[in-house]
Amino acid sequence: MSQRKGATTAGHAETEVKPQGQAQNKQAILLAQDAGHFSLIKAMHLADVITEMNGFCGFMSVLSAMRYCLGDRTDTGNLWAAFFFMPFGLFFDLFDGKVARWRQKSSLMGQELDSLADLISFGVAPASVGFAIGLQTFTDQILLSFYVLCGLTRLARFNVTVAMLPKDKTGKSKYFEGTPIPFACLTSSAIMATLTFMDMIHGNLPLGTALTGTALEFHPLAVLFIINGVLMTSRSIHVPKP
């Protein structure tokens, strides 16, 4: 995941940069102005704009999945577009931190933008694709919602605890607490893309349904999202940073 959280974080994978107090104070003043033409735009840094592109890719993935649901199921063009936008979101998620470090500018607004963009691109988008390929029973929807809420909780927890995680000599956290949300997204999306390529979606989903014909009917494939959700929110899993 990518959070430029606190005065010390920037870019992909919860990476930190040195604090820029003066620049952040200037941004806070611009954002707090009661009146001012384009004050929000003036307050944004280049890294913030790149983070916005992450959110853009995530939302375009969601819209592509919705367009697929509205059209002919045999035409998977929009479904592939939904898959296509997710790695582009990851690219911008990686790139915003590099730009922040290059320009030596952290951003108060970027701290929040990172988590919000990640939730869209790596939480809501893959869940939307899961629904589009056939995880559409009521219980499936609850399981997909569980995944999104785990992503939301994981991002919020990082925002709160990043300052308390052990740091290396450069000031970066030594590990991820729980699996990063991009990892959860890419693993589930890779499996769904493979199933789409093999035409194993909708009625052809592997393992079929469980509790078929009852109010609790669900597709066992949806358990993939449960596993990723649990791994994201685990505190006992420490993933070393590269």
What does this structure look like?
The chain has 242 residues and is mostly helical. It has a single domain (6-240), classed as CDP-alcohol phosphotransferase transmembrane (TM) domain (Four Helix Bundle (Hemerythrin (Met), subunit A), Up-down Bundle). 60% of the residues lie in helices and 2% in strands. Strands 1-2 form a two-stranded antiparallel sheet. The chain is globular, with a radius of gyration of 19 Å. Mean pLDDT is 83; it is low at 5-19.
Based on secondary structure, the structural category is: mainly alpha
Total number of distinct structural domains: 1
Question: What's the CATH architecture?
Answer: Up-down Bundle
Percent range for β-strand residues: under 5%
So what's the overall shape? Answer: globular
Name the CATH superfamily classification: CDP-alcohol phosphotransferase transmembrane (TM) domain
Return the CATH class: Mainly Alpha
Uncertain runs: 5-19
Supply the number of helical segments: 8
Span between termini:
13 Å
According to CATH, what is the topology?
A: Four Helix Bundle (Hemerythrin (Met), subunit A)
What is the mean predicted local confidence, pLDDT? 83
- Fraction of residues in H or I helices: 55-70%
Major sheet summary line: 2 strands, antiparallel
What's the arrangement of strands in the largest beta sheet? Answer: 1-2
- SSE pattern: HHHHHHEHHE
Nearest-angstrom radius of gyration? 19 Å
Summary keywords:
2% strand, 242 residues, Four Helix Bundle (Hemerythrin (Met), subunit A), transmembrane helix, EC 2.7.8.8, mainly alpha, phospholipid biosynthesis, 2 strands, 8 helices, CDP-alcohol_PTase-I, 60% helix
